[in-house]
Specification:
Blueprint: H1 3-10, E1 28-31, E2 34-37, H2 60-82, E3 88-99, H3 107-122, E4 129-135, E5 144-152
Parallel strand pairs: 3-4
Antiparallel strand pairs: 1-2, 2-5, 3-5
Length: about 150
């Protein structure tokens, strides 16, 4: 077990299997020293536990928890490409999309679920740039979607 996966276990979490693509794309690809993930939905054992718009059917607190699930799914996608999460040099960027009710403006707080978890797992290597974007709808009526970009060693 890698150090990163041991840290995930210490947090009482488990690195999931890679979520299969919903369309014609790969969960993650490597280009040089970087791995880019596709947008990861908060899938847990093949299903999204809560669906709908944040600020309407889904509370910001629930969405923040789902953003953390997305981050774990993204790490699983990275592992599928590099084999060992200890090869992560640093988290470079996190991009998050929040399916938002028309008057909801708390997208950054929702995405803190992903950012905070990545920081807890990776420590200083988890510090990253980020975008938090409100959107009308996401695939499968997911409340949140997260993609990450990481720098990796050979």
């Amino acid at each position: 077990m890698s150090t990163v996966e041991a840290r995930i276990a210490e947090l009482g979490l488990k690195l999931p299997g890679v979520v299969p693509p919903l369309a014609a794309y790969q969960p993650a690809v490597r280009s040089g020293a970087y791995v880019f993930t596709a947008g990861q939905l908060p899938m847990v054992e093949g299903a999204i536990p809560v669906t709908g718009k944040v600020g309407a059917e889904v509370s910001p607190e629930q969405a923040k928890e789902l953003a953390a699930v997305c981050a774990l799914n993204a790490l699983a996608a990275v592992k599928s490409v590099i084999g060992d999460l200890d090869k992560i040099v640093r988290m470079v960027k996190v991009v998050g999309f929040v399916a938002s009710a028309p008057d909801f403006t708390g997208q950054p707080g929702v995405l803190n679920g992903a950012s905070e978890l990545l920081g807890e797992i990776l420590g200083d290597k988890g510090v990253h740039a980020r975008s938090a974007v409100g959107v009308a709808v996401l695939p499968l009526d997911a409340p949140v979607e997260v993609e990450i970009q990481v720098e990796v060693a050979d």
